[in-house]
Amino acid sequence: MKKIIMICVLLVSLCFGSTASALSKIGSTGSEVRNIQSRLKSWGYYSYSVDGIYGTRTAEAVRSFQRKHGLTADGICGPQTLAKIGLPTGSSSSSSSSASSSETALLARIINGEARGEPYTGQVAVGAVVLNRVKSPSFPNTIAGVIYQDGAFTAVIDGQINAAVEDSCYSAARDALNGWDPTGGAVYYYNPATATSSWIWSRPVITQIGNHVFCK
Q: What is the number of alpha carbons within 13 Å of residue 171 lying toward its C-beta?
């Protein structure tokens, strides 16, 4: 009987432990906290170092974000807040969607070629455009098919896709694959300073990030 009780207690403990580990809050550390800080910093909610330590400054930034997005402003990153920020929750955080390592590397290469030097959010946004095209019936249904579609990306035409890839572009590729879409569903983007196509200028604009305008 004592053994049965001990087993039950252990199971309850494990269940509560797994629930707690799904939350980032004051005292938490690690890569998820860094991702939270990085995104909140890029959106202007957090202005301190991205150190992976969830302190009072991070909690206050989270509260500001939560208030802005109609969430309970408790300063804790639970599933709802993480979803709004664009980060995976639970066990799904252990991998970048179902993409293979070669697809992740290819996505990083096109991000590097197209958005090297852009803000980190802008790099993720270029990756998101590729993935939005994969999901759209108007484009090829694979990452490679979208990237190598004839005339689709300048970096493929001029060879910049083969340049040495910056570390941030690999991170941006993983973030895009994990579901972060700063563009709000864009399937096109252009640089207003260099774009000459009257057609691309006619597309409905969603947002601008860095030097790129993202559109439908």
A: 15
